[in-house]
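Dear H.,

Thanks for agreeing to be a second pair of eyes. The structure we're designing against is below in token form, covering all 150 positions.
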């Protein structure tokens, strides 16, 4: 007689998940490709312990957001819409203007389009820290360079 083993799949729960901090320099990087990599890390899909429906992703710090590269004619053709909440309060700006005035929003919006549109996705976006300059205030978290394999 042999023993019957029950195989269980381990799902990482939020309490077990360790959240690392990564820092990435956006200068000269392509927006779409960088946003894909960032969303992968925010969702934790780069980890062997990745579990859907659990926030096992890491924090991502993006520097030099104003030096991101948009391909093709996106600078003038891509539009960002913002609604103030008032009647007639919908304003649209081109990517060129948005990069000039609020470069961090360009990266945040691109990543937002790649994470799940639910509570978990919104929670993941809180782990994205985007800065237009080359400095960040998260030295205490000892962020590591962004993983190249993502």
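And this is the sequence the design step returned. I haven't edited it by hand at all.
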């Amino acid at each position: 007689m042999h023993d019957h083993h029950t195989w269980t799949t381990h799902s990482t729960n939020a309490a077990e998940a360790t959240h690392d901090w990564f820092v990435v320099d956006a200068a000269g990087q392509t927006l779409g490709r960088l946003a894909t990599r960032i969303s992968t890390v925010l969702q934790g899909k780069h980890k062997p312990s990745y579990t859907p429906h659990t926030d096992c992703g890491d924090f991502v710090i993006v520097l030099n957001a104003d030096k991101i590269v948009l391909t093709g004619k996106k600078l003038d053709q891509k539009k960002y819409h913002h609604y103030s909440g008032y009647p007639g309060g919908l304003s649209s700006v081109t990517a060129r203007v948005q990069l000039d005035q609020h470069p961090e929003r360009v990266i945040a919006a691109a990543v937002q389009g790649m994470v799940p549109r639910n509570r978990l996705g919104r929670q993941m976006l809180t782990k994205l820290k985007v800065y237009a300059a080359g400095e960040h205030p998260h030295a205490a978290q000892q962020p590591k360079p962004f993983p190249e394999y993502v």
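Two observations from my side: Helices lie at 31-43, 74-77, 95-101, 103-112, 119-125. The two ends are 47 Å apart (CA to CA).

Warmly,
E.
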